[in-house]
Design a protein that fits this description.
Length: 245
């Protein structure tokens, strides 16, 4: 089973080597790593080029933001299943993609797992633990969502699907909700940590960003008939237990 991993980046020289290494070191034999760069001005491009054939496709050009770059990656992907790994994240172990592939060999269309947030400088220090838990459609109305970097989906299920560029922060949430609605009975939870994510993402960098994220989340919830204001409140409250794992 071929797995396409899409990494989008821009001026990511401080972190992308860890990301590239974590994909290169996978034991799964058929991995297509697609890297879409927004025409970085630091050493990002040279670090990617140093990985040679371990990066199957490398494209560097100006884009309209992270989700535009993800759409470019989706259009280039040829794997049986597709997922995204951010340029400051790492696959949790060398066997992560092998475990995903083994689980997807059965009747499932989508798979997701757990994620840990790690300190931006000391990536061995866990600061939050996102236990996803089992999926059910009813949980969507209670603010449940899987961690996007752990979410893998069959490519034939998402033909023609794109990340919606009207959203600057919540397009991944929208994308996953649309996928889950397409095949809600063929979703598998893999109860293990699949990704280490560096703490300090774009949605938490300022009060303005957090307010925008809430506005976008609410619009996504309503557009996907997943609830309303109470769903948004529950989604935010779900983060609290992550700090006490």
């Amino acid at each position: 089973m071929k797995i396409s991993v899409i990494t989008v980046c821009f001026n990511s020289a401080k972190t992308i080597k860890d990301t590239l290494d974590s994909v290169r070191d996978q034991t799964h034999p058929d991995v297509e790593h697609i890297v879409i760069d927004g025409n970085s001005r630091d050493a990002t491009k040279s670090l990617i080029e140093q990985h040679g054939s371990h990066v199957a496709i490398f494209k560097s050009e100006p884009d309209k933001g992270i989700y535009d770059a993800m759409n470019k990656g989706l259009a280039l992907a040829t794997g049986d299943i597709v997922g995204c790994l951010n340029a400051d994240d790492m696959l949790a172990s060398k066997a992560t993609l092998a475990h995903i592939a083994a689980a997807m060999e059965t009747q499932f269309d989508m798979i997701y797992g757990d994620l840990v947030y790690v300190d931006a400088e000391r990536t061995d220090k866990v600061v939050r633990h996102w236990d996803s838990g089992e999926f059910s459609t009813s949980r969507l109305r209670h603010g449940w969502m899987p961690p996007h970097p752990t979410f893998y989906v069959r490519r034939n299920l998402i033909q023609g699907e794109k990340y919606d560029l009207r959203y600057r922060i919540a397009a991944d949430y929208d994308f996953m909700l649309r996928c889950l609605k397409k095949s809600p009975t063929r979703v598998q939870y893999l109860p293990e940590v699949l990704v280490h994510m560096r703490n300090g993402g774009a949605s938490n960098r300022s009060l303005q960003a957090m307010l925008r994220k809430s506005q976008e989340d609410l619009d996504v919830i309503r557009r996907n008939s997943a609830g309303g204001v109470l769903t948004l409140a529950a989604k935010n409250l779900r983060k609290i237990p992550q700090f006490f794992k």
